[in-house]
Design brief:
Elements: H1 5-8, H2 28-33, E1 39-41, H3 50-58, E2 63-66, H4 73-86, E3 91-97, H5 106-114, E4 120-125, H6 129-137, E5 141-146, H7 149-157, E6 162-166, H8 181-191, E7 196-199, H9 205-213, E8 218-221, H10 223-226, H11 235-243, E9 249-252, E10 260-263, H12 266-275, H13 283-290, H14 292-301, H15 324-346
Parallel strand pairs: 1-8, 2-3, 3-4, 4-5, 5-6, 6-7, 7-8
Antiparallel strand pairs: 9-10
Helix pairs in contact: 3-4, 4-5, 9-15, 12-13
Length: about 350
């Protein structure tokens, strides 16, 4: 196991409430990232911008800019610079590499990241060996997001520094295996040697404690960080996420073998209905509903009917809209309390 409970609750007999509010945790992830806490704000399209990233990092966690939210590599450079005006703490950049008829200039984005002093990259989708080699030659660490243990083991063999593994409960694309977080995290923790980050199904101190108790080195959250004051999302969408329950998400693109989890809205219900209609469905039949531009419009206008809103089942755990600092402080405190109580039960 890579983490000991004493690293989270330093004194076995101490009341976790008595720990200083700034008391840090120690795992392989905090040591790799240079953060107080093993909490990562994952890359999210249209959301991973400077104001959120800086707020997360300033609170002792690790913020991540989403590269492809920026229209060009030059815009990404400016966003990195803008983030540095808001925080002097470590942060990273996400670069998701997906097959496309007209792919963005991925290598130019990678060069923008490497040439501007970023020390940690979160990758997702394909993970070309040449990109790994190029980043590692510059001393950059790579956290690769996977949805299956077999893919995580492949990434480990290819030389990534850590793996972030997504369970079925997550927002975005959970893969086609449909393995829930509890089983997936446990198997991954048993099989991988490199640092492991749990992603999906985590939004509070209770779920954070569960992941750390399984021997995982850190957690990654997306949906929970969307519902913070600093997230660049309209307040109406944040309140919508608060109001929804764990039963209010849908799986789309299943018939296209590219499953995605989104919030249940009139738009996503129309997508599912179209996919399930007699005669089948091609992507062109739903493209007008699911475009990224429409999703961005929904997030920024507050009108849920404009496009998809990507969200995980953790909406059922979210009941407030705190600042990032308030959220992280509460999570760390609750995590310590629960791990201490669990230890007392077995001693």
């Amino acid at each position: 196991m890579s983490l000991h409970v004493r690293d989270v609750v330093p004194d076995r007999i101490a009341d976790p409430h008595s720990l200083p509010r700034t008391a840090s945790m120690k795992t392989r992830i905090t040591e790799m990232l240079g953060t107080k806490y093993p909490i990562i704000q994952g890359g999210m399209m249209w959301v991973g911008r400077a104001e959120l990233v800086a707020a997360v990092s300033n609170a002792g966690a690790f913020g991540i800019i989403t590269a492809l939210t920026q229209p060009t590599p030059e815009h990404l450079v400016k966003e990195i610079e803008r983030t540095r005006t808001l925080t002097d703490k470590p942060f990273g950049v996400n670069l998701t590499i997906l097959p496309s008829a007209k792919p963005p200039p991925y290598e130019a984005y990678l060069d923008a990241i490497l040439d501007n002093g970023i020390k940690v990259i979160e990758t997702a989708g394909n993970n070309p060996k040449e990109f790994i080699a190029k980043a590692k030659a510059r001393g950059v660490k790579i956290i690769h997001k996977c949805t299956a243990v077999r893919h995580a083991l492949s990434a480990e063999r290819n030389g990534v520094d850590a793996v972030s593994i997504d369970g079925m409960e997550c927002a975005g694309h959970p893969g086609e295996d449909q393995i829930g977080c509890l089983v997936l995290f446990a198997i991954a923790a048993k099989k991988l040697k490199i640092p492991l980050v749990a992603s999906g199904g985590i939004a509070d101190g209770r779920t954070m404690a569960a992941a750390l108790a399984m021997g995982i080195d850190g957690i990654n959250m997306g949906t929970r960080f969307c519902v913070t004051k600093e997230a660049p999302i309209h307040d109406k969408i944040k309140q919508l996420l608060v109001d929804k329950s764990e039963r209010d998400t849908l799986l789309i693109f299943r018939t296209l073998h590219n499953t995605g989890r989104v919030l249940k809205t009139s738009v996503s219900e129309e997508v599912v209905a179209t996919e399930n209609r007699p005669g089948g469905c091609e992507f062109k039949d739903i493209q007008h509903l699911v475009s990224g531009a429409k999703g961005r419009e929904a997030l920024e206008s507050g009108d849920e009917s404009k496009g998809l809103i990507w969200a995980g089942q953790t909406v059922g755990l979210i009941d407030d809209i705190p600042t990032c600092a308030e959220l992280i402080d509460k999570m760390v405190r609750e995590c310590r309390e629960l791990l201490s109580a669990a230890r007392d039960k077995v001693n």
